[in-house]
Design goal:
This protein is mainly β. The chain is built from one helix and 22 strands. A hairpin with a 7-residue loop joins β9 and β10.
Length: about 325
Amino acid sequence: MKWSAGVLLVCCLAAFEAEAGCTAAATASPASFGSISSSLVYSAAQNTSSTNSGLTCTPGGISLLGTAYFKAKITSAQTGMLGPTGDVIAYNISAGSNGTHPITRGTAFDFASNGLLGTQAPSSIPLYFTTVTNNVAAGVYTETLNVQWDWYYCTGLGIGNVCLGSDSGVAKISHLTVSVTVANDCTITAANISLGSAPVVSAFTPVSQTVSVACTKGSAYTVGFSDGLHPVSTGGRRQMISGSNYLAYDIFKSAGTTRWGSVGTARRASSTAEVNPGNGLGHIPSSGSQIFNYNAKIYTDQTTPPAGTYTDSVVLDVGF
């Protein structure tokens, strides 16, 4: 008697498969430059990024095949971040930090062919933004970008790099908001005041000087001089000191006799500047400064104090 047994032969093709998939969120992670002074917006490029520009994928899949792509086309109805007065802050967009791999608006950019994704489908794709310097008014500036995503890649490979599955998306839109808050700022130029020397108070002559102020474009502001370190409690006079002795003096608006102070109407409004009166012109060196004239003098109705070097310190401030 012969016994026989059947042998089942099974041959399987070895394959690697990793299920994955991508989605384009309607709202991407926003990119904010934060609050920046108008002088910095004018003088230096600012940087920020969006950690996720809309496309999110389940880790896995192979993105290095020649047929794989992850493309983003960025468009907008604006040309940059729009502010409350109509000023626009332009900026550059890039796929790499420090401005590498620049992206042109309206032109699809492939993150895969530019070597930015590694070997697998990305869990997220960042974008980087760098402002173009500009002289602008204060306020909140925003722009909403439309990021159109198109992608295709294999989710699994068989022997000979045969694609066993794929994931794709066509014309999927994510909206990404870019914003910055521009804060009022000023650059102040003011020289020290020297009233010279004289044997008696009646021999001192007034000194005329100027204060130069360059403030944020369109800003209305006031400028004030503090009362110094040793003001008279009554009468409002400023005083210089030498040892235990005092010498009364004051600072007056323009070429007149109205005291320039730090509170209320004692301050000077930007509209009263002798040069470029009105709201601030911004930080343009050649034409942005507003000039305020003043005169300083020793009061002649006081008793001449002992000889010495008399000093005081006053603070010049700008308020919005």
